[in-house]
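Hi Q.,

Before the meeting this afternoon, I wanted you to have the magnesium ion prediction in hand. No need to reply - just skim if you have a minute. The sequence and ligand are here:
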Amino acid sequence: MKRRLTVAQAIVAYLQNQYSVRDGKEFRFIEGIFGIFGHGNVAGLGQALEQDRGLKYHLCRNEQAMVHTAAAFAKATFRMRILACTTSIGPGATNMLTGAAVATVNRLPVLLLPGDIFARRNVAPVLQQLESGSSQDISVNDCFKPVSRYWDRMQRPEQLLTALPEVMRVLTSPVETGAVTLSLPQDVQTEAYDYPEEFFCKRIWVIPRSRPDQALLKQAANWIHSAQKPLIIAGGGVLYSEASGALAKFADATGIPVGETQAGKGSLLYNHPQEVGAIGVTGTPGANILAREADLVIGIGTRYSDFTSASKTAFQNPNVRFININVAEFDSYKHAAVPLTGDARATLEELQGAIAGYAVSDGYRLKIANFRADWEKEVDRIYAIRKEPPISQGEIIGLVNIMVQGEDTLVNAAGSLPGDLHKLWRTKRPGNYHMEYGYSCMGYEIAGGLGVKMADPKREVYVLVGDGSYLMMAQEIVTSLQEGYKLNIVLLDNHGFSSIGGLSRSCGNEGMGTNYRYRRGDRYDGDVLPVDFVSNAASLGAWAIRAKTREEFAAALAEARKQPRTSVVVVETSYEQRVPGYESWWDVAIAEVSEIEPVREARRKYEEARKKERIFF
Ligand SMILES: Cc1ncc(C[n+]2csc(CCOP(=O)(O)OP(=O)(O)O)c2C)c(N)n1
Ligand SMILES: [Mg+2]
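Predicted structure with the ligand bound:
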């Protein structure tokens, strides 16, 4: 039996019949498709989606944003369900590049279907085609290669038969997943072919729970048995594998403390007795002191970014060793570890069996308990700062945290908020802290919030966004209204880039280019720019309100929650009032020569600090 379909129609028919399954739970894998149409896809994929409503179509405002929405959706479903994205050719396609990088860095499956120039070529150059004098076998879509985990271009209709299964294999692979780009020349999209009927049958992709090598598992168990000061670092892989329960049992049984990366925050709930909170540059004192002294670090689902390893200065015990549990061999071998290449949950369960009876000393337990108690006090202190308006960011975080219940989720990505949230947010459910810090992409927040809401419309989604990020990408408020997905947006207005301004000053400079103020001569030190965020959000259709004091903010937040449509609470926050860093360091290279004395001073300190950077062989 054959079905005669265009390439675009075949893609739509195929994608709607792909399913994922893990732990006996089955999901339709590709839940829908976002897109903006142009001549590169309207008559191809646009036609197919209009004729076959089996794949739900969503209109967004900006192609980069829709990829953020799709990545956030995949993250919120622990990679069990995804969204596809279709664009026209040229700018529509390349607008997705940043989103693709976000997805791939964070190992989140998104399927990108950019339109491409005519395969037939006779009409070239077409509108929006960037020509090359060295090859006709090239278009701007080749830019997706380094940011995609799988990349392909359909030159003939029958290529779909071998390309789409590869697309699915990579999207559903816990190891390889990320952005998958299938480039679709506009003429090929419309060409018909007799596809075999079986191609469109339901297919179920098992998301595997792979297990580590048994000899390596034994070696890891021996290392744990001889460890006096072990520490677990929980990364995003713990959440992707839905291994929070297994980790809690492991920590309960062994007493080993757990520090969390940005992606792994929420692996344990904040009140678990072994949870020592955020680790690394934006970590808690307890987690960072434990890391400094640890003789054994067990990294689970982490890729040891510089924010986690404090630029390789975090682990100072001369005898420190590593065990890495990671589904990706690439990561399990880092830091010369015993590589337990496997699924986080399955491997933790096996490892726990292999170390039965092991527990840390009472003295170590006491130390952990003390760190935890001290940290709770510090968070309480910061939540309770009652700064005159403009109020402090720490207070805002505290007030939002109190508001969050059940499956409600916090979303954030860039600015000074990620560091403060990493330290201060009290996670009440695994997954309710949704931070995009792999790429830390300004503009992810609102678009990402939409994806989190779409993944589970029953929950309230709290998007915290800085004024800089908001101005970069606020337009998906309109999409949230159109689609009927309500977001609670909190816009923290500090008139510029508090994060990068602070960083500039810590490097001995004066924060040039980080204030939203009028130009005066060669500086931006005039009055604050009169951006009216409340009017801006209201003009897009949101329910919007300004809050100045702590009390006004708490009331506005409660009122926003009651609103049926997307709300934006605008609050002016202090540019200067910061949550400090605790027991850590980040390598940001400082000018080796400068006419400015504070820069020279910063360089001297920098050279000193760098001496602590280690390489593990
Ligand atoms: C797309 C993108 N461009 C640039 C940066 C570098 N960057 C990191 S934070 C930041 C400023 C963010 O400003 P805002 O959202 O107001 O947050 P604040 O720093 O004031 O907390 C910049 C420019 C980035 N992370 N992402
Ligand atoms: Mg700002």
